[in-house]
Specification:
Layout lengths: L4 H15 L4 E5 L6 E10 L2 E9 L7 E6 L5 E4 L13
Antiparallel strand pairs: 1-2, 1-5, 2-3, 3-4
Organism: Lottiidibacillus patelloidae
Protein name: DUF2642 domain-containing protein
């Protein structure tokens, strides 16, 4: 049985986050808070557990967040040899 293209894309997206466990990630979301920078700690199903280092609201930083991978608009996961996500501070 042939898989639906949406199922293949969903599996690949989740696997990309699984492969990024332990790495730094930059995420843009459509809803508040809109931007996260942190470390991917784990992936369970289609939810990523991320330790948030930086966001636009300081009170939300230095916490673990559960982020639904399919709600992410834009993301970048650091990889060996690739560009690094800059440190953003006040």
């Amino acid at each position: 049985m042939k898989k639906d293209i949406n199922a293949i894309q969903s599996e690949a997206l989740i696997q990309h986050f699984i492969d990024g466990i332990g790495r730094k990630v930059f995420i843009l979301m459509p809803g508040f808070p809109f931007m996260f920078i942190g470390e991917i700690l784990d992936v369970v199903g289609d939810v990523a557990k991320i330790h948030i280092e930086t966001t636009q609201t300081a009170v939300l930083e230095d916490r673990n967040w559960l982020v639904h991978i399919h709600s992410i608009e834009v993301f970048y996961i650091e990889r060996d040899g690739g560009p690094k996500i800059p440190e953003l501070r006040d």
